[in-house]
Amino acid sequence: MILKEVRKEVEDKKGNKTRKLMFITLIEEDSLKISIKNKDYKESVLVDFNSIIGPYLDKATIKQVRAIYKSIYSQKKKEVQS
User: What span, in angstroms and rounded, lies between the C-alpha atoms of 70 and 29?
Assistant: First the structure.
C-alpha cells in the first residue's frame, strides 16, 4: 500500500517548473519499502528497510520495528477505507 509519494519541484530546460516523482514509500504489515524508478531503468527498484537496518538490530528490536510497521499499516488502511 502506498504510504507517500515524495516529489521535488524541478525546472526543465525551458524554465517550466514541475513536480517530479523522486520515490514512493510503501507500507506492508511487516515492512517499509521504497520504490525508486528513473528513466534509465525499465523496472522499479524496491528497497526494504528491514534489509538495511536488520543487520544492526537484535531480534527484540526487529520485533518492535515490525510492530511499528503493523501499526502504521493499520492506520493507513483505516485512512484509505474512510
Answer: 5
Q: Give the residue among 53, 23, 51 at the shortest CA–CA distance from 35.
A: 23
DSSP string, 44-73: -EEEEHHHHHGGGS-HHHHHHHHHHHHHHH
Task: Give, for all 82 residues of the chain, the pLDDT tens digit.
Answer: 999 999 999 998 899 999 998 999 999 999 999 999 877 778 889 999 999 999 999 999 999 999 999 999 999 999 999 8
Distance CA 68, CA 72 (A): 6
Q: Are 5 and 21 in contact (CB under 8 A)?
A: yes
pTM of the full structure: 0.81
